[in-house]
């Protein structure tokens, strides 16, 4: 299987502005490989380094050491992001635009032709069920609607790799189900999905493989079924064991 | 180039969907119309005062629009976090800066055209005289000067975090250059060392925005500036804008952006 996303001994240190002392090692030599066509769950407690990894993959934060590649291209090259879609955890879109204008803007960035843009906007707004609100300003949308616009913008370039940062965070059960359906649909289309989540039940349902990190270090990577079998428990229990959390009854 | 135009389009959309421009335009219009209706001392040349007031208001309004619009671009993108889905696309930081610059500059230019049309209508209706070429030169030179202001404000916006600080510092710097920038060499002549050297250095380092100010020519109808001078002024504006944009890019290209 060919690798679509790869990190090699990825290290990120955040230094304090005044004294230039190393204050925190966010990632300590992370090695990850995600293959084409898989749904890959990226798990870890808060502060483990999930978002930092995504920030490096998207070029927001430069690695201190090591490297990261998308489609075999160093993530520091903007062209590495030509075939990816990104959905941030929270909704960060121009609120003075309508959903249609926002999608048209992003389509223009990808150099998609006008006719193709019109077609894709119709398809995506139908997919995320925002057709009736397409001409309304995003500032008038509910949180769920804004998250769905986010999903539509992540798909505007028909990406081969989708990076989702806690995509169901803050959504109601219906919204979560919808996102899961879309992930499943993308998987059936042969797309690769890399997503971070705290919803372990959801991860167990949709993911082929997972990686668990803690304190910036990779603890385990493997198939969900293997992890569950190895720990003779559900994914949540396996996750807690792996990160070394002692349940009160065990201690 | 597609990306830069797309980014510029967003800046322009933001400007006309916000209220700043309309407030300034209505204010300029009201003051000019009120001044035009007053007949001081039965002076038949009252229209010159109207022109003077109107031109001053256009300069102040255009500066406010340029500074306020530009100063908030990058901080607002970071604060509202819209920069993350944007830079997750194949957009370089250089394109991001150029798109913001182009958008702010075009938006300011559009506001300038509206202001000058209003100016031409008000003064033309009183004088029955429309020196279009003169207006064209005045708009062009002012717009070229605003390119420097926009680039300077963009640079300031990556140094200071708050748009209000960038706007205030930018306004003081620009007003200072416009009012005393051209006289610094004369002032330097009367200073002891090392003040003389300092004044001369500042004089040669600052962009001379006052060179773009041909308001008196418009008000007193002194005739056109030579087209060669216009071309040289345009090159001068392009060089300074380029320099400030380069400084902005150097400051922004390696900045960590944490979600």
Notes on the structure:
The complex is a heterodimer of chains A (251) and B (259). By secondary structure, chain A is an alpha/beta fold. In chain A, helix 2 (99-109) crosses helix 3 (114-127). Chain A starts with a strand and ends in a 9-residue tail after the last helix. The longest helix of chain A has 16 residues, at 173-188. The radius of gyration of chain A is 19 Å and the shape is globular. The mean pLDDT of chain A is 86. Helix content of chain A is 34%, strand content 27%. In chain A, a hairpin with a 6-residue loop joins strand 1 and strand 2 (22-35). The longest helix of chain B is centred in the middle third of the chain and has 35 residues, at 93-127. In chain B, 78% of the residues lie in helices and 0% in strands. Chain B has helices spanning 2-17, 20-37, 46-79, 83-87, 93-127, 132-159, 163-180, 184-189, 195-205, 215-220, 227-252. By secondary structure, chain B is mainly α. Classes of the chains: A alpha/beta (251), B mainly alpha (259). Chains A and B meet through helix 1, helix 2 and helix 4 of A and helix 1 and helix 4 of B.
What is the topological layout?
The complex is a heterodimer of chains A (251) and B (259).
Chain A: E1 3-15, E2 22-35, E3 39-43, H1 50-57, E4 65-70, E5 73-74, E6 84-87, H2 99-109, H3 114-127, H4 143-155, E7 161-165, H5 173-188, E8 192-196, H6 200-206, E9 209-214, E10 217-223, H7 224-231, H8 235-242
Parallel strand pairs in A: 3-8, 3-9, 6-7, 7-8
Antiparallel strand pairs in A: 1-2, 1-4, 4-5, 9-10
Chain B: H1 2-17, H2 20-37, H3 46-79, H4 83-87, H5 93-127, H6 132-159, H7 163-180, H8 184-189, H9 195-205, H10 215-220, H11 227-252
Distance between the termini of chain B: 27 Å
Query: How confident is the prediction overall: mean pLDDT of chain A?
Result: 86
Major sheet details of chain B: none
Helix content of chain A: 25-40%
What is the count of DSSP helices of chain B, taking H or I runs of 4+ residues? Answer: 11
The backbone outline of chain B, from C-alpha atoms, is globular
Q: How far apart lie the N and C ends of chain A?
A: 42 Å
**Pattern of helices and strands of chain B:** HHHHHHHHHHH
C-alpha Rg of chain B (nearest Å): 20 Å
Oligomer: heterodimer
Contiguous runs where pLDDT drops below 50 for at least 5 residues of chain B = none
